[in-house]
Amino acid sequence: MEAQAARWTPTRRRWRHALESRRVLAPLLIAPAVVFMVLVVGVPLVWAIYLSFTDAVGGSLSGHWVGFDNFTNAWHDDNFRRALRNTLIFTLASQAIVVVGAAILSNFLVRDFRGKWIIRFLVVLPWAAPVVLSTIIWLWLLDSLYSVVNWTLAELHLDHALVWLLGAVHLEEGAQVPLQWLGRPNLALIAITVVHAWRILPFAVVIFIAGRSSIPTEVEDASRIDGATGFKKLWYVDLPLQLPIALVAVLFGIVFTAVDFAVVYILTHGGPFNSTQVLPTWAYAVGIDSGSLGEGAAISLFLFPLLVLVTVGMLFFARRAQVS
Amino acid sequence: MTRRQTIVTYLVVVPFAIFLAFPFFFALITMFKTNLDLANVEHVPYTYNDLAGNLHWDFWNYATFEHVRFLFEETNYPTWLLNTVIVGGAVVVITLLLAMPAGYALARLAGGWGQGAGVGIFLVYLVPPTLLFLPLSRLVSQLGLKDSLWALILVYPSFTVPFATWLLMGFFKTIPQELEEAALMDGASRLKALRLIVLPVSLPGILTVVIFAFSLCVNEFIYAFTFISSSEQRTISAGIPNDLIRGDVFFWQSLMAATLIPAIPLALLYNAFLDRFIKGFTGGAFR
Amino acid sequence: MADAADEVARAGSALTRSDLLRKGTTAAFAVSMFGGLTDRALGVYGPLKFAKKELSGELRIMTWAHFVPDYDKWLDGTYAKQWGEANDVEVKIDHINNALLYSTGAAEVAAQSGHDLFWFISPPATFQKQAIPVTDLVQEVSKKVGRMTRVARKSTYNPATKQFYGFPESYAPDPVQYRRSQLQQAGVSLRTWDDLRQGAAKLKAIGHPVGLGMSNEIDSNMLLTSLLYCYGGYIQNEDNRIVIGQGANRKGAIQALQVMKEIYSSGMSDEVFAWTAASNNQAFLAGRLSVALNAISIVRSAEDSGNQALSDDTWLASIPRGPVQRLGNEHVMGVYLIWKFAKNKEAAQKYVVDQMLAYEDHFVRSKFYNFPPWTNSIKGGFKTIREVATKDPHKPKGKYSILTTIAEKYTTNPGHPGNTTPVMDEIYNTFLIPQMFAEVAQGKSSPADAVGRFASKAQSIYRKWHNQKLV
Fold it and tell me: Cα separation of C171 and C173, whole Å?
């Protein structure tokens, strides 16, 4: 100890003490990440917000100030309103499917059974493939002429039944065989929702499994002793305990789906007749393809306040659930 | 498990697996189809038909490697694969370098405002890249990085770091403080404690970050498309749609192959590390 | 060396040897490529000495991935290389999917750096403030080969600024492609839209429906606009004001909507709402469709497919006649922009002009996809074009002759009779026209309502761009 103390000169000791202090060390460790984020995300974001208040055109990064005009103009456009509505529909519907599916699947995937490794491999595949490429595969699966989905339905003699069913629930009246999954507005909504859910499901399953793993074994034993098994256990014990992590999974799913561009762009390009446009694709069509950059920026940012509220709300909820 | 439970298990997981893996299964078949076979609406899509539309038990004689060969020999596909790995790897390293200190600080040292930072981190994901790519284009060009992989390596951490920080923050929180306290009492500095004690224990968390960050990089395509124009510098998400969709012609079979080839190894990798990955998420408590 | 020597004397500056060499070999190149330009014929030049020399300049060009891959191979490997060597410039051409031209262009503008020459698949009116005007280049070419076609002029001239903002490079006419045997079997004629309207049901009855898209993609945009022209439902007038909501235009538009609805309900299937740009190609090549309206990529793909019967049975025709006229849109109007921030503007300017002075190779190598905006860029104008087209070896012989007629008489620019303005650009890129037609066809709106809604949307788009002083 003496030898060690002798090595420390006064200056070095002062430095060491500084680094030991939380107040210095914490910001120091966080600084690189923060500086990086500010430069690479913060500055462009501020610029994008500025653009939404201008009439910038082409790719130019400046324009004349127009106040809230871009936002009000967008609001009066029914294509925009439909894009907003679709964004919400796709996000909520697909994530509802994801939550239910992941809750169920994760419950069974933690059991031991033969072939578990293969099943898990298959489950993970959608997550492993880049979204652009896997969506192109879906484009082929739902092709207007070559859809294997339709071919299979026809071979199983289920196609006309499905058409009847769609008419009966008033989802699609007068649809023809083969079903145009990307050509009739409601079918396209269904198709896109399914692809979104398909994409996020593996990710959610993994997070749910992680959540289950954190359930202490005492709770398992206790619930078995109490006689709570099967569905009752799922509803009253597992789900509440998984809630914190489940909420996080849902939050990620919501965020990734709400700002997603690829799935809609590749599958329908916003069609048929602009009925499946979502905010990112509509913003792209207006802001980039048509060159009305200021408007495009405004459309892109419309969802931002809402998503902030959702994020804050869910994280707050998750924290509460965790504590309890 | 009881026999009944086993049957129920299979009844649940198998349909899910089919639903999730079906597109890839179908891609596997389609990539070997000849053009005439593919284009004929009357043919069976699940196997290989001859010109007359008949099926044969030796179906492999009616398939072709031509489209895979095309993919590898007449496009820059191998280069794109390599570029994707390079970008992914570099970004993972940068992400860890930035996120680990930050995550640790927020978990241990930041006290109250760590939670607020957690929320702030999420907000980064709410801005669509379809808007950000324009000002970022300016940034990339002013740094002289246009048309090079460095443009992506610079920009990608912007969406991997927040999530990684949040993940690691949660993970570090679950590491018992006693471990570090013990080291500190022995006279080690906090930094030394971090390096020698915390790091080895947090390997699962790091692995988690690696997998997530890598998958985010592979999925990204908007920046990949707009920052890089020359085909040899592209990654797979940008190169494949660009070169395999010419005007109004889709090279379907090559597209299928191009998707399957990275997806399978990645899925095997994720699967192999799934257990450790889950540990990373929950910070050590596992069944 | 007469010209070069004169220039030296005039300039009075010390031109380096490489400058002289450059001018000399440019002339040599000019003679070898352009044949009859004798005023530059010089005698002194042996084999190009540039084979190993490092080229001093660089020209970066961005263009689309041409649907004819061989054209790109030739362009990159032969034409650009030769031009580059003759002009002491290294030419680098990048090809991207045409759907991404706008976003990449926007990114380059945002970055204020990128390529020198940027090609767009349709007149890039929204980017005109970012490019240098090319009026002088247009005039230079016109002086040498005569007037440019109306299509090209209306697409690249902005009457508000009185400048040509972009340099037209090519255009592709939009013929009808049909299965002769099937139309004969059903007894259907394509002379007028009314004929098609009446015959559509018969074609569907024999299992080969009509394929006119109403989807969010370029083919639909072009053919539906053409349909509007034929019925006199103009979106703009000559002054680029929106007129579709009024008078004869409104009536014509309503009629066109009605016709399309009838063709759909009797002769088409739901697939036409789900199409990508490739879908009508695929459906036609699969033998399903009897009629399609598309650039010649369909018939060329049929020739390449190995299906001889299909290829021989695929004939071309001009767009059916409507009550007002027979007129169609170009399918593609290739326009070059020279960015304000381009590093090598001189090389870019020379490149586009040179290309336009001798276009025949481009026309042939693109398999007749690329028509020249200055008809006499091919010596002999439409006469030569027709000769070349008719000589095409694919059966039936002479089937491409009609393509020349379409290009000569029945092709116009988007926004006819006005210019191709940013307003038209936005209408196209937000797919308002397919939306209008599809809503009527699927019974979700009456034609009058659909036209009214479209007109008011077009009006607000017009107001916005008018405030920008771009129209």
Answer: 7
